[in-house]
Design brief:
The protein is mainly α and about 280 residues long. The chain has 14 helices and two strands; from the N terminus they run αββααααααααααααα. Helices cover about 60% and strands about 0% of the residues. It has a two-stranded antiparallel sheet.
Length: about 280
């Protein structure tokens, strides 16, 4: 039976001018269907050696360029002009090209400052002072350093600005809403005195008192707790002032917590709030 089929297939003559999709190249049948594997003959079940091509976009449409051409450019000029608001887009593009690179950086910095302050719950009236601090400190840094970018410099500027003005700010919350790593953030804090001399002259004790007040309000410990912490701080400040602000706050608040015997708040919860390890204040 197999020999008979082979002889039958060999005897089939196929016209060279005939469309190969109209007949099977093995049995000559014109009953061809399209399947998942390709074009298949319904009589003999052989899949034809014709590639199955698929194209879902009409050929009369403009070709769309999906490659990334730049950070602020979408497609070619012909594609941009075909948009609904193409004239407005072209005008904005010309205005943007008139700005210098420094002006563009300051615009990005202002937007980033507003975003950070909004997330952290700080007033937007601090945007202009922070932007001026950013401009000055950026000019003090050498070109080519990574801290000149708004994403790297602004978290450090915001942190130092609020500490200088004795306004409570949590380093952990700031790092969560910014892209700078904790390693880079800590590295910049050690060099900030070189470009920000006013930061060294800040009133540390007043800032610590404001942070103690913030902790008191967060855990609802009452004003007697705050006044007792303030007395302990004034008594031991000269002996503990050479450590970090958060460690001083955790130490003072922990001593007050133990003396007042507040059972509703644990020292571990207090340390977690200040991002300080319990082993640090036990030393």
């Amino acid at each position: 039976m197999a020999t008979h089929n082979v002889e039958k297939f060999d005897s089939v003559g196929i016209d060279s001018n005939q469309n190969p999709l109209e007949c099977c190249d093995a049995c000559g049948s014109d009953d061809i269907i399209e399947t998942r594997e390709g074009y298949t003959c319904r009589d003999c079940g052989i899949v034809l050696d014709i590639q199955k091509l698929e194209y879902y976009r009409p050929y009369d449409k403009d070709i769309v360029q999906y490659a990334v051409l730049g950070k602020t450019q979408m497609g070619y000029k012909r594609e941009r002009l075909s948009l609904k608001n193409s004239m407005r887009f072209e005008g904005l593009n010309k205005l943007d090209s008139l700005r210098t690179s420094e002006e563009s950086v300051f615009i990005v910095a202002r937007v980033e400052i507003k975003r950070i302050l909004t997330v952290l719950g700080f007033p937007l009236t601090d945007v202009d002072p922070l932007l001026e601090k950013f401009k000055y400190n950026r000019s003090q840094l050498g070109k080519g350093t990574k801290y000149r970018s708004p994403q790297m410099l602004l978290p450090c500027i915001i942190y130092a600005y609020y500490k200088e003005n004795n306004k409570p700010i949590r380093e952990k919350d700031l790092l969560e809403v910014t892209s700078i790593s904790k390693k880079d953030f800590n590295a910049f804090k050690f060099s900030i005195l070189r470009i920000w001399p006013e930061y060294k002259e800040r009133n540390r004790k007043e800032y610590i008192i404001q942070r103690v007040l913030e902790v008191t309000e967060h855990f609802d410990l009452g004003m007697p707790f705050f006044y007792q912490s303030k007395k302990i701080l004034n008594q031991f400040y000269d002996n503990i002032k050479n450590t970090k602000d958060d460690v001083i706050i955790a130490l003072v608040a922990s001593i007050t917590l133990l003396c007042s015997q507040q059972s509703n708040v644990s020292i571990s919860a207090l340390c977690n709030r200040l991002d300080v390890k319990m082993s640090t204040i036990h030393r």
